[in-house]
Each structure stands twice: as structure tokens, then as C-alpha cells.
Design brief:
6-stranded mixed sheet, 2 domains, DUF1285, 15 strands, 9% helix, DUF1285 domain-containing protein, duf1285 like fold, DUF1285_C, DUF1285_beta_roll_sf, mainly beta
């Protein structure tokens, strides 16, 4: 049996989805090819993907790239990865932005369901934590939710305001904290 020819480019390496269907993220955690170089691609804080300085306007293409995105915690870098290539890219903050929130249930039994700018959906739970970092001298809150495999979404300001409206107080380790419940887990929003 004859093997298919090796891929000629990054896009040739990506398994194809059926036409009209949303592609599931690739199993990038299984791939660790050598570094191929740096790609002139970056993701802005607002979730816009740029290639060679121009925004990528086709959402399906951005979703394709997002499906092969990997964060290497040891290197502190983001890469586009296939079984045969690994290209470094720049990310200003988080690769995704959580743009919508739906709430199911109430109180400790509620579930907070986030949708990203690329139509990924995630429910905040123990595997997909929600947290807030305080940044800069003004201690401006920067809220995040884990989407998948070390890839996070910055929570859009409007969505964060919705979370604040849902916030309750709870004592944790002898300290009064302000936060929200999702999937039976309490997530502090006060950034302490």
C-alpha cells in the first residue's frame, strides 16, 4: 500500500472536516514536532487574528487555525501545531474572548455557560475554571475562563458585568470572598 505524499504546508497537514460542519480541535497534545520557525501571525486582546499585519476576516479560517493552537507552558509560548510542523505565533493576552454568557439554574446549582468569539462553548467547572487577575497600578480586573488544554478566554467586559450581577459572598479559609457558583464550584471574582 502506497503512503500519501508528505504535506507541503501547514494547512495541508490539518485533517479536513466535512463541508459545512464545524471542525473539532485537533489532538495537538499528541503532537510535538520540532520548531519550524516563527509565523507573522498574532492574536490581539480583542480576539482578532492577524496574518502579516492584516486581520483574518473569514471566521472559518480563524476557527481552523484555532483548532491547531497549542500553548506550551514551559516555553510560555503559543504555537500552531500539526503532526509535522510547529510555528510560533504572538498572542497579546488570551487566544479567545468569551462574548456571551447563559445561566442555567440558580445559586450553588447554577451553571455558567460561555460562548467565545469563535463559537466554542464551555461551562465553568473544576476542569474549566473561572478566575480574575488584577492588573496594573489601578488593579483593573482581567477575568478569564479556561476553554480547553491550557487555552483561555478573556471574558468580555459586558459578560463580566453579568457575572458581577450574579456574585454572592462566601467565606473561604476565614476570608469573606465575592464570587459566583457554577457546576457546584465557587469561583472568586475579587482577584485576591
Amino acid at each position: 500500500m502506497q503512503r500519501p505524499p508528505p504535506p507541503q504546508s501547514l494547512l495541508d497537514s490539518i485533517p479536513q472536516a466535512d463541508s459545512g460542519q464545524r471542525r473539532e480541535p485537533a489532538p495537538v497534545h499528541l503532537w510535538d514536532p520540532p520548531l519550524s520557525g516563527e509565523m507573522d501571525m498574532h492574536i490581539a486582546r480583542d480576539g482578532t487574528w492577524y496574518h502579516e499585519g492584516d486581520p483574518i476576516r473569514r471566521k472559518p479560517l480563524v476557527q481552523l487555525f484555532a483548532g491547531i493552537l497549542k500553548f506550551d507552558a514551559d516555553a510560555g509560548r503559543y504555537y500552531l501545531v500539526t503532526p509535522v510542523e510547529r510555528w510560533g505565533i504572538q498572542v497579546d493576552d488570551a487566544p479567545f474572548v468569551a462574548t456571551r454568557l447563559t445561566v442555567e439554574g440558580q445559586g450553588e446549582q447554577q451553571s455558567l455557560n460561555f460562548t467565545t468569539n469563535l463559537d466554542d462553548s464551555v461551562t465553568a467547572d473544576s476542569e474549566h475554571p473561572l478566575w480574575v487577575e488584577l492588573r496594573g497600578s489601578s488593579a483593573e480586573p482581567a477575568p478569564y475562563v479556561r476553554v480547553r488544554s491550557n487555552l483561555d478566554a478573556l471574558i468580555h467586559r459586558n459578560v463580566f458585568y453579568q457575572l458581577v450581577d450574579l456574585a454572592v459572598e462566601r467565606e473561604m479559609d476565614g476570608v469573606q470572598r465575592t464570587g459566583v457558583w457554577s457546576s457546584g464550584v465557587f469561583f472568586p471574582l475579587d482577584g485576591l
